[in-house]
Amino acid sequence: MRFECESGRFLEPDIDPDRLAVVGADRSLSWRAFRDEVTRFVAEARALGAVADCPIILLGHKQASFLVAMAGCLALGAPYVPVDVSVPPQRRRRIYDLAQPYLEYDCASGCLRRLGSAPVTLDEKGVAYIIFTSGSTGDPKGVQIGRECVSELSRWIGESFGLPAKPVFFNLAPINFDLTVFESFGMLALGATIVLNDAETQRNGSALVRRARETKAQVWVSTPSSAFQRFVDPDFCAEAMPDMAVFLFCGEVLPPAVPRFLRRRFPKARIINSYGPTEVTVINTQVEITDDVLADHAVLPVGRSKPRAWLEIDPANGEILAFGENVMRGYLNRPDLNAGKMLLRDGRRGFRTGDLGRLEPDGMLFCMGRLDDQIKLNGYRIELGEVDAALSRLTGIAQAATVVLRKPDGTAVRLVGCYVASGEALGDWRAGLSEILPTYMVPSELVEISLMPITSNGKVDRTALRERCQG
């Protein structure tokens, strides 16, 4: 069974109904069972009043039912909003306020419940899902991805990645991180299998290796950092994971050390590097990192644009501009942001990525950093302004700014919060931040300063702060 987003129909490829569709952290579903559960989900949601274009929250953490509910929402024409249970309560409430969902599905209990008295449909019609990312004002931003976007992604996965037939995807990203979208739609488009790994399993290297071996996992999709953490485990190798055939990386800079290590541990596996903000439906480019590519480039390329889309470099500032059917429909209820970030070229939507890039004559793209203070840390996109806003809300802090410390190759390694004290006791700042920020956005340390450095245009001088922290 697979899903055709444009027509809203499930298709039946040549697949054994007893083949596994989903191996969740809690249970497994064959394709027959998966189809039956999707049908029941759709019927129950409709009985509760679900309508097209009205968002449904999917709350969970790597349960098999997440994929059931995701496919059910697609069948209903209702945008799904993935929210991992690890999202702090205050941030979760804000996401609910912004999305105005009519229904919430608890993936752990299987409970589908109403959140409002009547459905409120989106102004933007035909949205497949909404993922919330960091906002520079401290407010999450809802990225609206259209059904045509995921149709393009699904088509591209089947056309251009050279994956094994009906592959087994090994999922490592949280459900509200868009790398999960690649594997989820890959599973639906190819009649494949997806293996969902919860946080506890991922913390246990031997358990993760054993799970990959037992599920015959073939396609590893993660940030480079997620793979790098496994290198200390001698069992992270082809002998212990014999079916692993492809490593696909996205979300941050791929250091050459990662593919070099993988070459030694998995000599027959293909390594694919890719690039793409959440706003262009997970990834926009891909390239295989061969031995020749490694030998020729100190900074690895991120690939050429997907078909039916194209990239440009803004000559004014070097910013990467993305165009095509894979570009989002805009931020949810944020015309101010859309005015500055969305473009239109030859009838196609475009997006200002905020990334600096170099485009070779043959279409090969190289990423050169960020235009602004939005960063990637361990694969997560973070806007430093959101961390600043959270720090400034703590008792004992009058003014705050966050800096990122980097390796010589530019890879972000940790956040440091700098603050001017207000005169009140600071207290347990980690606990305070954990109430309003995800764990990956909490700085590793705070540094008190007497006066915040300012640039000539009146903004906080993060460069001066970073030099102080590194010194």
Task: Summarize the structure in words.
By secondary structure, the chain is α/β, with parallel strands linked by helices. It folds into two domains: 2-365, ANL, N-terminal domain (Rossmann fold); 374-470, ANL, C-terminal domain (GMP Synthetase, Chain A, domain 3). The strands form seven sheets. The protein has a nine-stranded mixed β-sheet with strand order 4-3-12-11-13-14-15-16-17. Strands 18, 19, 20, 21 and 22 form a five-stranded antiparallel β-sheet that branches. Strands 6-5-7-8 form a four-stranded mixed β-sheet, with helices on both faces. It is globular, with a radius of gyration of 22 Å.
Offer a quick outline of the entry.
With 471 residues, this protein is an alpha/beta fold. The chain is built from 14 helices and 27 strands.
What strand line-up does the widest sheet have? 4-3-12-11-13-14-15-16-17
CATH topology of the largest domain: Rossmann fold
Helices, by number, come to 14
Report the CATH architecture of the largest domain: 3-Layer(aba) Sandwich
Helix content: 25-40%
Largest sheet: 9 strands, mixed
Q: What is the percentage of strand-forming residues?
A: 25-35%
Structural classification = alpha/beta
Mean pLDDT over all positions: 91
Shape: globular
The number of domains: 2
CATH C-level name of the largest domain: Alpha Beta
Instruction: Give the oligomeric state of the chains in this entry, treating copies of one chain as homo and distinct chains as hetero.
Output: single chain
Rg on CA atoms, Å? 22 Å
Please report the distance between the alpha carbons of the first and last residues: 57 Å
Tell me the CATH superfamily of the largest domain.
ANL, N-terminal domain
> Could you list the spans in which at least 5 consecutive residues all have pLDDT below 50?
5-12
